[in-house]
Write a structure and sequence with these properties.
123 residues, mainly alpha, Helix Hairpins, 6 helices
Length: 123
């Protein structure tokens, strides 16, 4: 199944079933899950730690690197979805609300081609 045909709900169910089959609910407090997510995010960052921006973009041509990075990204997504399950967050609604805030904070016509506002000193 591909991104185009898999729903967020299906992914959440996959995580929920995996956790339930192992009786791990007792360990899946949001606090624990958020720490696990941070650890997995750090493992993902390790793949890029000592390389430049261009080299990081070139990694997509290296199937072994893409596979290893994909595994870490999957771990990050698994923990993020587990947090959503624990807190009964609607991921789609949460993403839409956050993107509205981002659009207001970073209007395209003002920020296009830059990563910060002119008055924030990050140019």
């Amino acid at each position: 199944m591909a991104d185009q045909s898999t729903t967020v709900s299906e992914l959440r169910s996959m995580i929920r079933d995996f956790v339930a089959e192992r009786q791990w609910q007792q360990f899946h407090a949001p606090k624990n899950l958020s720490m696990a997510l941070a650890i997995e995010a750090a493992e993902l960052m390790e793949h890029f730690q000592w390389i430049g921006v261009e080299r990081s973009r070139e990694l997509k041509a290296d199937p072994a690197a893409v596979a290893a990075i994909g595994e870490e990204l999957a771990d990050v997504l698994c923990y993020a979805l587990a947090i959503a399950n624990e807190l009964e967050l609607d991921v789609s609604e949460t993403m839409r609300a956050k993107m509205k805030k981002n659009e207001a904070k970073y209007p395209a016509e003002e920020i296009r081609g830059r990563y910060g506002h002119e008055d924030d000193g990050r140019r």
